[in-house]
Amino acid sequence: MLSVFSPKIEQAIELAAQWHDLTYRKSRWREPSFDVPPQDVLRVPVMAHVTAVALLIQRAGWSDDAVAAAFLHDCVEDVNRYGMVLRPERLVELMGPQIAGLVFEVTEEKYDEMGKKRTWRERKQGYLDGLTAASVEAIAISVADKLHNIWTINEAIARGIDPFTTSEHWRGLNAGPEDQHWFYSRVLEVSERYDDERLVPMRRKLALEIERFVDFTGVSG
Q1: Where are the domains positioned within the chain?
Q2: Mean pLDDT, to the nearest integer, of 159-187?
Q3: Roughly how many angstroms between the first and final C-alpha of the chain, as a whole number?
């Protein structure tokens, strides 16, 4: 049951805001709401993404722990502005094993056992393999995360932006349309193994965005 005020969620928001301070998404597709100095490029803070994911989780009726974990879902995976990595044990100390455990379930392993950086495909396949044994709360966070990601990709394409090519104002995605379609489709497929009514509208929306992505890019559906 969601409470009117949750200290755990408040702490998660503060930690996420600190960790993602001055880190940004790959692209921006909305027009700026103010005049940006010509020497600057307006970018979308990562905090906007994690907030959108957490709101999806909250609106779908998941627990306070799931909402808190949604705010933190990129903290272990992403370095902060100083190039630091958040140690898993530190997250447990700060947020407790339940919330930290949900974060770990949706965190990609970027390096192999030898410390070598994994390829995009290896990272995504490892992520999918982990989802097959994940808790239903972690599945919800994953679906919400991927829903917001593919929705923003679609919105960019709809406004004439090529999200797959690096330009002056954004960094291209690390994989092309075919690989992206494979990954989002597999996340949806894994989520369908879980029987929870709160997942139903989330899956439906993700499926619609995958269809829109196919229409925009022409990849094989």
Answers
A1: 7-217
A2: 92
A3: 38
Per-residue CA distances from 84 to 35, 77, 99, 112, 129 (Å): 33, 11, 21, 18, 27
Report d(CA 106, CA 23) in Å as an integer.
20
Using alpha carbons, list the distances in angstroms from residue 49 to 39, 125, 132, 196.
25, 23, 24, 24
**Distance, CA of 148 to CA of 127 (rounded, Å):** 17
Whether residue 3 is predicted with pLDDT greater than 80 in this model: the reply is no
Beta bridge partners of 45: 24
How far apart, in whole angstroms, are the C-alpha atoms of residue 171 and residue 165? 7
Q: Give 29 or 75, the one with higher predicted confidence.
A: 75
Burial of 40 (0-12, 13-18, 19+ CB in 10 A): exposed
CA distances to 12, 39, 78, 136 from 52, in Å: 14, 29, 17, 19
- CATH class entry, domain 7-217: mainly alpha
